[in-house]
């Protein structure tokens, strides 16, 4: 690669504690050591949710809404909105059987959670409020469930709470990988 092809508008990333999200002693995420299946699932999901928050910390509305690589509409703000929709769909509609309409996504634009993620502080506030509300609902649902074998209707079949929690960990882990790259593109900070 020649020096002429280097994008000088992008931040330079260097591994050092100074550009990590948090130092190890300040990291709010757990270090494992859970004794039972429910604790493992709940706490790993909690850590993935915290990771999304960490990836977005300290950014303004414009930075949160900054798109990744054209033509992708993906942004950190879009990921927050998307995960609010995911939480709502799985816990309210699938597990609880509620008639909970989508927040942003609709048939005419299945990516409205990403397309509507614009650099407006009110949009950012709305996204975080929706995400936190859906996470709180999910946490209450799990805490009140009789066991991990509780079933919800999914398509033509069923899904257990156990499988859903594993799926949610996977969903966050996948999108937190995207968030790592998005954040590094914004300010060079790298994730743990």
TrEMBL record:
Pfam families: MST (PF04978). SUPFAM superfamilies: DinB/YfiT-like putative metalloenzymes (SSF109854). It comes from Micromonospora halotolerans. This is DinB family protein. It comes from the Bacteria. InterPro entries: DinB/YfiT-like, MST-like.
